Amino acid sequence: MDLPVLNRRLFTAIALILTFLASSGALASAQEQSIVVASTTSTRDSGLFDHILPLFTTKSGIEVRVVAQGTGQALDAGRRGDADVVFVHARAQEEEFVQQGFGVRRFDVMYNDFVLIGPRSDPAGIKGSPDIAVALTSIQSKKAAFVSRGDKSGTHFAELGLWKAAGVDIAAVRGPWYKEIGQGMGAALNTASAMDAYVLSDRATWLAFKNRGGLEIVVEGDKRLFNQYGVMLVNPARHPSVKAEPGQRFIDWLISPEGQQAIGEYNIDGQQLFFPNAKQKRS
Amino acid sequence: MSEGLSAWQLIASGDAALISIVRLSLTITLAAVAVAAVVGLPLGALLALTRFPGRSALVVLINGFMGLPPVVVGLTVYLLLSRSGPLGEFGLLFTPAAMVIAQALLVLPIIAALTRQTIEDLWREYRDELTAMGVGPTGRVATLLWDSRFSLITALLAGFGRAAAEVGTVMIVGGNIEGFTRTMTTTIALETSKGDLPLAMGLGAVLIGLILAINAAAWGLRLWSEQRVA
Amino acid sequence: MMRAALTDLPLILDRVSLSAGPTTMLDRLNLAITPGAPTLVLGPNGAGKTSLLRVCMGLAAPSAGTVNWGGRTDRGLGRRAMLLQKPVMLRRSVAANVAYALAQAGCPRHHRTARTEELLDRVGLLGLAARPARRLSGGEQQRVALARALAREPEILLLDEPTASLDPAATRHVEEIILMASQSGAKIVMASHDLGQVRRLAGDVVFLVRGRLCEHASVGDFFDRPSSVEAAAFIHGELVL
């Protein structure tokens, strides 16, 4: 009779698969403690985490699982209690997060800068301009193609701030030339590359980006392009599931001389991507 | 994934990160299909063999759910498994288990709907014979599932294909965490966003190759066993 | 076997009608089937032979009237078996088909292999035991189905034109098996439209026309003194509509 045989085989197969799954999950987590860090695409895509996380894990035995999202999304993950640590770059939103009681305390970690990327043909005629406000005004008046993240990420917030600084009410004057794609930095760069459009990017992602096509940096160095990263522990009083102790150890390490040095050392082709600037020492 | 290497070099060198990604992809997908099959095969058979009020509505619902948008499934599972959600206490979000749950939900309607159709057709052929042999309800389900096993393999493959090719749900509920929840499809999405299109394409080719290989193996198995028993 | 206590005989149909929508297959039929020599169900195509057998088997519930199996009216399977006009082979080997029927009939696992061989031997298919059942010829499939029916050790064996599409040699083989079952105590109820076969096998004849019982008589009386015009015409090879 082959039916019982079928059932036995089926159950054996399922049991094997589940065991395999459980064991592979267990292997990944058994060796050490782990924390979930909600961070931005720029820190991951630039390769920074690949450089610094192994150093921290070796020292502490804590595995760091990075979920890379836009800053807005990463802060939301923290609000919902789905991450232990939030590591992002939009100061105003971060401070609000702490103020509302979702984060324990915010620490500066490092900075880099934004750069305005554009096509080599430079239809807005702004290449080499030292003033980002003038450059953006020119893009708007010439209706040169511009790609916006449009995803409430740190870079998106920064871009909106820069339009404001340039005196352009982007919500009012936007037209077909202003393309809001609602996606990550990489997707925005890919889009700009395909359309020969201008786009605001953090320098680290730009340096690590491979599909540049005809794009290059057109504006950089304006002090308004400064891009500060901060880190916060999600409030365990709010979400008891937060792994406060290992999470805080990660934050302490990031702002320690050792962590700061590791950040400063990371480079692509000799070019430094992030500049450590932690001020506070944890008391 | 090491810097500056082409996909082909990675594949040829059996890159450890690549192998672990492929292994995780296969494990998650197979587990999801197994879970969906354990629920979907009997569910489809039951729908084929029973008549109850609301059955038609359920059949339409399941048929329609074959085209469930992955992002919606992902978001739903995310909200359920989130620490702030009803199942938050289990801490499953951003783990492979969450990915298996989400993909199983995605695949379940496909397996259940195709099973129902297959079993219903076979039941029409077998009804008198099985009744005349005095086969009870449980025996019917088992016999019909077993005797349509070759068609059901196709249903399982359809489910497997959907799960293996899918990126939206696993990205949302898995978080694409390196070495933990990063699969072939999320890696392809990631490499695309990094602008490394050749590497993304290369990984895409590996994925397609894997899916083809598994389909070929299933097809071969079917031919071989049909030769023997059908 | 537990079932031995139950009996399906006599099988009594009391004013049984069977209809689907506007079509009437059986029309207020009274019939008693009792132990003894084979009962042959005779009649032109569409007379309701298959419907009668399906009702007797319990495969179809009558639209009106009652069917009584040895005093019981529930359709739950007792010791009856049926050979369908077009038997369906399960997608497995010949032996597995028979073993399946044995399992359903409650034959204990450790007896099944021996019983399967015995049954296959009885229908002359021992040599084909390992072959996929669906690859057999029509006559061979008919015999597999017969083996499956016999696996139930039936008290009543219903057969729906088992030799309709068989050549004379195969027909003789199947008839021998049926006679053997009859001699070992099974009540045979068999639909046929082959008068020669009726003469060879029947104890009594049930003659149906358009869903109605036209005549129920011993085989001698039926052929020698048919009481209805339709039966007389049918016996003489005329078309009965």
UniProtKB/TrEMBL annotation, chain A:
Keywords: Signal. The keyword Signal applies. It comes from the Bacteria. The keyword Amino-acid biosynthesis does not apply. Residues 1-28 form the signal peptide. InterPro entries: ABC-Tungstate_binding, PBP_domain. Gene3D superfamilies: Periplasmic binding protein-like II. Residues 29-258 form the PBP domain. This is Tungstate-binding protein TupA. It comes from Mesorhizobium ventifaucium.
Automatic annotation (TrEMBL), chain B:
Residues 22-218 form the ABC transmembrane type-1 domain. PROSITE patterns: ABC_TM1. It is a multi-pass membrane protein. Keywords: Membrane, Transmembrane, Transmembrane helix. It is found in: Cell membrane. Coiled coil: none annotated. Signal peptide: none annotated. The chain crosses the membrane at residues 26-49, 56-81, 93-114, 150-177, 197-221. PANTHER family: PERMEASE COMPONENT OF TUNGSTATE ABC TRANSPORTER. This is Anion ABC transporter permease protein HVO_1887.
From TrEMBL, chain C:
GO terms for molecular function: ATP binding. Transmembrane segments: none annotated. It holds the Pfam family ABC_tran. SMART domains: AAA (SM00382). It comes from the Bacteria. Residues 11-235 form the ABC transporter domain. Keywords: ATP-binding, Nucleotide-binding, Transport. Belongs to the ABC transporter superfamily. This is ABC-type tungstate transport system, ATP-binding protein. It comes from Mesorhizobium ventifaucium. The lineage of its organism: Bacteria, Pseudomonadati, Pseudomonadota, Alphaproteobacteria, Hyphomicrobiales.
